[in-house]
Design goal:
This protein is an alpha+beta fold and 154 residues long. The protein contains four helices and three strands; from the N terminus they run αααββαβ. The chain has one domain (17-147). The chain has a three-stranded antiparallel β-sheet. It is rod-shaped, with a radius of gyration of 28 Å.
Length: 154
Amino acid sequence: MVAINQLIRRVRTSDSGAELLEFAIALPILLLVIGGVIDFAILFQRYEVVTNAAREGARVAVLPDFGVADVQARVTSYLVASGLTDAAPAPQVTYNTTEVTPGGPSIDVVRVTVQYPHQFLLLTPLAGLIGKGAHADIMLAAASTMRLEVAAAP
C-alpha cells in the first residue's frame, strides 16, 4: 500500500510532459505569426512590382508616337516578367494627360495608374476555417506621373 501511495504522489508532482503541452499550445500561434510574415512579405514584393510597372508605363507614355496600347503592353510585359501572372482579370491600366501650371509655363504630364488584385496565400484559407465570411482580394494600386516629352521642331 505504501508503494502505491508513493507512486501516486510521484505521478501527481511530476513535471514530465509539461514541455510537450506548452509546445502544443505555442506551435499553432508561432506558425500563424510566421504565415503572416510570409504573406505580408509577398504582398510588399507585389506592391513594389506594381509600382515599378506604373513607372515603366509612364516612361513609355511620355515618349512621342506611343499610345495607350503601347503603355498597356509595357505594363503587362513588366508584370509578367516579374512573375505576376496569376491575376484572373488583366491588370487595369489608366492613362491620361493633364496640363499643369506650377507657377510658370504650363506643362503636360502623363499619369499612369496600375491596379492588380492580390490574395493572401496563407491567411485567407486560415480565416475561412474560422469564419464563413467572404475574404476579398486586396487591390494593389500604384500611380506614376511624368512630364510629357515634346518633339523638337525641325
